[in-house]
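hi! just following up on the protien thing from before. the input was this:
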Amino acid sequence: MLKLQIPKNRMNYLIKQIPLHFDATRLEQGWEYYHKGRVTVVDLKGLTVLSTVAGKQLHKAQIDLENFAASTCSCAFEGFCQHIGATFFSLYAPYGRPELVLQQLKQQIHTRKKPLRSAAILQERKAVAPANAPVEESLPTEWHRFFEGKFHGFSISHQHSIETFFDSALESLPPYAANWRDTTRELYMCHIVLFMMRKIEQFYQETKSSYLSYYHENGCKIAAKNCEEKLVQFIRRIEVNRSFQAEPKHWHATIKMVGESALQGKDSPVDWLFVYRFIWWALTDQLAVQQEEMARLDTLLAKKDMLPKKKDTLLAARAHFDIIQGHTEQAFERLGKLAHPHAKDFFLYLNKFVNEGQWDRMLVWLRWLFPTIANANHDDFRTFCQYWLDTTKHLPNDSEWVGVMESLLPRSYYYYTAYLLQTKRYRQWVDLQLANRISPLNLYGMELKAIEEHDSALLLPLYHQAAERAVLEKNRASYKTAVRLLKKLHSLYKHIGQDDRWEHYIYRLADKFSRLRAFQEELKKGKWIR
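and the predicted 3d structure came back as:
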């Protein structure tokens, strides 16, 4: 059955309405109906979803996407029945796994059913609420206390609700600072993102042991990446020197808060080391606070019995200040003490050098990173190769880049082979395929055609090797493959006018494998031997 996909804003509306109208038992029955395939028809008419759900008999359910309370069903149950629930899960299926959203909604229903405080207490809380709103003169710790209260009880139980949290925080929190002065409002926006990062990390830690941890982790990483991008965007908007002079207390509180989160070396979906270094890079001109931070890091590094991961984080943070001050060799000396260096932790610098066109510094860093790149994951390896390629364009020649690619073979095969074709080094390209035992049948036709147009003779050893390797597999299918290769090889010999050499080769090949009767039959079919 084809799934009806309603707009995401309508789906978010339904997710909010379900806990308000269903009890947990009836909702779970709805999921069972959906899981057993009892929702047979789902259609959309205006803003109403029409469905047919099979129970003991067929029932017609209608879900109003604008006013959920007006949804109805033809069954005898008074209220929101399992048929409406089954229809909801059918609508949710294109967005994620219904069994996951079921758990989230049941949790919200149980929370809603907890005994409420007395009306007087609730009224008192409402009266106090405006006073708890963030104040321009308050320090960031007070802002975060307000953020926590605002999202107290916000339930996150699968990856899509993490997206809901991200969107909700960015939508609901900024208006409180709408009338503040620019310098404070800009920092306030950064703290909204820092708050979201802390909540995402907290959720990640709480759900690590869950059987759904893979889905939680994936959602956390996506949301954390979005937060990092937002923070970079907000920091770049700030005129840091003017802002620091106007809001020194707020800035000191900010860097203290970031340091507390970033320097623990704990497992987190948030790249806190990136956040820490990016913010400090924005404070390049604030020499006094830099000196204070360096002294603090030196004190922390002097402590003994420290976990390796935390020590690596502190070393990378301390080396960052050497880099800011242009002491690259000193930074490398510190970073050489890392127990587990990761190339991706230093792409921050490479990206900055590319944007600023500092190709000399870029080359120094690429050479230093080379030993660690062999153990990098696929994405980091690809990024490293791209940085090298960009840098090579600004060097007198590409000999060093070629040497790097050759030393990283076979992992660098795809990047190196593409570069050889791009620079028309066809003989080296053929040698690379021969060394890696790549069959022409596994290469792109356009690549082979380009070399054939340049010099057909270059392809001869490639086809020779592939054909004989196929014969050595000794089965009928491989013999047919060998004949395909031999046909192309024959055409290449004809193209370069060496028919005699072809005749000599084919008879020698037939003689070499004279005991392989099936192969001899294939050669006879090709009319190459009698």
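The chain has four domains: 8-114, 141-285, 288-340, 424-525.
The longest strand covers residues 39-45.
cheers
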